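Q: what does this look like with Phenylacetyl coenzyme A bound?
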Amino acid sequence: MYTQSFSVQDDPAQKAVKQVGSTEPAELMAKFDACIDGDGRIEPQDWMPEAYRKTLVRQISQHAHSEIVGMLPEGNWISRAPSLKRKAILIAKVQDEGGHGLYLYSAAETLGTSREQMLDGLHSGKAKYSSIFNYPTLNWADVGVIGWLVDGAAIMNQIPLCRCSYGPYARAMVRVCKEESFHQRQGYEALLVMVRGSQAQKDMVQDAVNRYWWKCLAMFGPPDSDSPHSAQGMRWGIKRISNDDLRQKFVDATVPQARVLGVTLPDPDLAWNEERGHHDYGQIDWDEFWATVNGNGPCNKERLATRVKAHEDGQWVRDAAMAYARKQQQRSTKEAA
Ligand code: FAQ
């Protein structure tokens, strides 16, 4: 169902957005534009305008950090998973998210930005990561809801990125989406088991849905009218579907899933609109979203402090790996001599 985004036609109006005041060499720029207009792929060795490179690094950095910080809310529940099976699934899922972060840091490296630079940005609080990971996971149902809704929203957003104009990012996304699809299903299945259980379990699921629903809608970013990067990102074929259109797709896909689970999505304005062929939904609290994005959500400080500590605690591993690599290199140089 999430793969429907593959078949969405690009809006020709996107291509009409031209770069304003470019100082790039006209000939190279024309070649680049022709590649983008022809739905080609830009590879690391190809010439690209600096603004395109910068936009990609910005978006990939936000995405990579989201995967890494995103390990924390669910990671908190590994030691408290209700069975060995759930523990094994959760460990695998959290590990996958770490892997996604690494593919993405590698994709950014192909654009000339080192992992150290990106991590400095995260640890100093300059770089962004997804707002959703600044909320606490209060009960076991939160883990299921993160799989169902957070990974569901992530897939919806990332399937179009498999067609991103920058080759390494697009290719990384193919694998990431396959894994996210497993994550979404394991979350949904965990919730199905809970809603067939006791009243207390059903209440836990509903409580988790109530807390996460609106935050998941905000994951798609600000409304199109308030999204500074969307027009250019779409012109360059980095983004293929707008923030609002993806949000709408997510709502439409999730309503029937909620019905099967027997949970209520906490929005009195949620209703099918026959004329639009979509669900209408209520107002997202954008003030709360921006407060969270700007570092003042319920868990921002804790998340960042945990990441900084993990990085510092891991220094000895990086030192040992570098010392080993140097030793191996010296040995092979000696053998070659
Ligand atoms: N949270 O003009 P736009 C996952 C920022 S991965 C925080 O619309 P753009 C997997 C935005 O960066 C989830 N900041 O920007 C998982 C920009 O800031 P800047 C992450 C946000 O780039 C599951 C400013 O607002 N997925 O969940 C958010 O065109 C479970 C203006 O916004 C990705 O990152 C937000 N929600 O569109 C892991 C996908 N929204 O740079 C563990 C790739 C917007 O000006 C467990 N990224 N901002 O300072 C994207 O598709 C895009 O970057 C958007 C934003 C759609 C997020």
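The chain has a mean pLDDT of 94. The first strand starts at residue 271 and ends at 273.
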